[in-house]
Design a protein that fits this description.
alpha/beta, Rossmann fold, 2 domains, seven-stranded mixed β-sheet, six-stranded parallel β-sheet, 18 helices
């Protein structure tokens, strides 16, 4: 009887072993395909939310009429759309170039422009409506004339604003528009695209397209922070729009397959943005060019403000309404519509939000007060006189700015860097994680004394991505940021009231020019990173908690 029992026991284990092997194989396959599925979801399911066609705009004068924007996109080109090219591993307008490699490029000048215009007029008269694509040389860049006559110039990181590249960008834009100055507003191109139904007498070339493609994981090797890259994107877009050129930005297609970077912030700024609308008089001259990106509607920035070598003179504030619209669109897509009935900022109409259930993070608990607390490199890691830490007393002072009583503050969120050294940038941030932890905990204790009923959270865990950090700050009733190129953008974009520390020549110099009615400048005491390095962290932490009659440590 013993032998049959032994045989039966061995047989009974075989199904169990098979199940275990099957389970291991299944989980391995799932782990391999889940990042790809996430990115495909991001591209397809969220396309309407992150495309420029669904931008939530809030100026008194609409940025661009939605019907016009749809028509621009519809008539732009006959090539595969951006998603098709991305899935093929090619960014927009790089695919057609591959078929033209054997063509010597034509120099882009007035003569070439007239040749292209004549061909387009003949194509429209014959009913074809399109011309043969060809390569052109535009300054030091290669471009392509697309079938609808659009001059497209693909560009990359070499045109981002630092190291004199903003001036290089403006040189390229002058070449694209065949102008000697971007302050020259004579109109060389149509303000709308000429479709096949256009009359031959009125056919004209569409505005050129500046097509920017970036490796959206590039911040680390370049050594630039998130705020620097977002600033650079708006600097490029501002110059492109001043030149009356269409702007398109996308991340490199290879980024989609890298699961480590699927939460990168730059991907949220992808999209196509047509040139500002132009009113043309009967002689074909530009009568009026609208500038719908800030509060000075119709008042264009100057070339000096846009193309400067000096960061202190770069007027990013001229894009403030575009920044606000982009950041709000990102936040709504991530966490759902804002709780506007509880917000103090009601000067803008509520946007048409997507349903709550399709937000990427629909169950996020939002804060009444959100504070971007920079505490890594500024804790003496990088001894700079222009960065520092705000005195803790600034927060209760400005929370009271709108007459909010302490018992009305229910939730306070502190957005800060991770306390894990391995999750920080090498250098000043990673070397000061323990000092950052101590400073953040002291801020929590300080705020808890002033708001004993409030629930205070620190948002810096492993699931807190950069886009989610932006969303938390944008959605709060009150949003605070000290000197930080990262924090200034959600302050501009907030649905509530935003408070930023006054900028300086090297950090947010444009901020003092902001004119949004819900964004406020703070001129509070702070201790510089240089002073922390000199006095030591202990002395700095003690000063931060003193009453508000203590000395100013910003000198």
């Amino acid at each position: 009887m013993a032998r049959p029992k032994a045989v039966k026991s061995r047989v009974s284990k075989r199904p169990l072993n098979f199940v275990l092997i099957f389970w291991v194989l299944l989980t391995s396959v799932i782990s391999m395909i889940s990042p790809l599925w996430y990115d495909l979801y991001f591209r397809l399911y969220m396309a309407d939310l992150i495309s420029s066609e669904s931008v939530l705009s809030y100026p008194a004068v609409p940025m661009i009429e939605s019907t016009t924007r749809v028509q621009v996109d519809k008539n732009r080109r006959q090539e595969p759309n951006n998603l098709d090219l991305l899935l093929m591993g090619k960014t927009p307008f790089q695919a057609p170039l591959a078929f033209l490699d054997d063509q010597p490029p034509l120099p882009w000048n007035t003569a070439t422009r007239n040749i292209i215009l004549k061909e387009l007029q003949e194509a429209i008269s014959s009913g074809t409506g399109s011309i043969a694509p060809r390569r052109v040389s535009v300054g030091n860049e290669l471009g392509i004339i697309s079938p609808d006559g659009t001059l497209v110039v693909p560009c990359g990181v070499s045109y981002m604003y630092w190291a004199g590249r903003q001036a290089r960008l403006c040189d390229l834009l002058r070449n694209m528009t065949l102008k000697s100055s971007l302050d020259d507003h004579d109109h060389n191109f149509s303000s709308t695209r000429s479709g096949p139904a256009a009359a031959p007498a009125t056919a004209s070339l569409p505005p050129p397209l500046f097509n920017l493609t970036l490796d959206c994981t590039i911040r680390r090797p370049e050594g630039r922070g998130t705020g620097n890259w977002v600033t650079a994107l708006y600097a490029v877009r501002m110059a492109v729009h001043l030149a009356k050129v269409d702007y398109q930005f996308q991340c490199d297609a290879n980024d989609l397959l890298d699961k480590r970077h699927r939460h990168e912030i730059l991907r949220w700024f992808e999209g196509h943005h047509p040139a500002p609308p132009v009113t043309i008089d009967k002689d074909g001259k530009a009568k009026k060019i609208l500038w719908p990106y800030d509060e000075d509607h119709g008042t264009l920035p100057t070339e000096a403000q846009v193309c400067t070598f000096d960061y202190a003179e770069l007027r990013i504030d001229r894009m403030q309404r575009a920044i606000q619209s982009d950041l709000r669109r990102m936040a709504v897509a991530l966490v759902g519509p804002p709780p506007l009935p509880n917000h103090h900022n009601v000067y803008v109409p509520p946007p048409p939000p997507p349903p709550k259930e399709i937000a990427l993070f629909p169950n996020i608990t939002l804060d009444d007060v959100a504070i971007h607390f920079r505490c890594g490199d500024v804790m003496g890691g990088v001894p700079r006189p222009d960065y520092g830490v705000l005195h803790f007393s600034a927060y209760p002072k400005w929370i009271r700015h709108n007459g909010i009583a302490p018992h009305e503050v229910r939730r306070i969120g502190i957005v800060s860097q991770p306390f894990d050294k391995d999750r920080n940038r090498p250098g000043g941030d990673s070397h000061k994680t323990e000092d950052c932890r101590r400073a953040t905990y002291l801020l929590v204790a300080y705020l808890q004394k002033h708001y004993p009923r409030a629930h205070i959270s620190i948002h810096n865990g492993p699931n807190e991505t950069l886009p989610l950090a932006f969303a938390r700050l944008v959605m709060a009733k009150q949003t605070f940021s000290s000197l930080s190129t990262f924090g200034i953008f959600p302050v501009i974009g907030t649905f509530g009231e935003g408070y930023y520390q006054r900028g300086c020549a090297t950090v947010n110099p444009f901020a003092s020019h902001l004119k949004l009615p819900n964004v406020h400048e703070m001129t509070e005491r702070f201790i510089t990173s240089q002073k922390i390095k000199l006095l030591g962290v202990e002395a700095a932490l003690e000063w931060l908690q003193q009453d508000d009659t203590g000395p100013n440590m910003s000198h």
